[in-house]
Amino acid sequence: MxxxxxxxxxxQAVGMAAPATVWSAVIGYAQTLALxxxxxxxxxxxLMSGYFDTPLIERTLERQxxxxxxxxxxxxxxxxxxEPREFADLVGALVSxxxxxxxxxxxxxxxxxxxxxxxxxxxxxAPE
Length: 128
Fold this sequence. Notes:
Elements: E1 2-6, H1 17-37, E2 45-49, H2 55-63, H3 69-74, H4 84-94, E3 106-109
Parallel strand pairs: 1-2, 2-3
């Protein structure tokens, strides 16, 4: 079993209280289910999705013209939003027999958004 939730569950956003609550519950359910069905060699994992170049992003950009794919991507450690194929590749791996021993995992697929930006050599020094 494979679940997909939004990364908003770990990076809270204004106006997302209800979805973040539901996605948190999905993670809890999936991890508990992994404990229950593990003895039957059934794995249960959850992917925490970031920004991907999909029709959903296109609709978001139509509603918020101040945003762009480049701007969304520039806020990520990888510097870009994901391609759908990159997400699909991980889905394929997690449901394949090659990763049968992976269960109860919550895997961020978000270009590093869940770990933050950090500092680079080009970043101004942090205020003291």
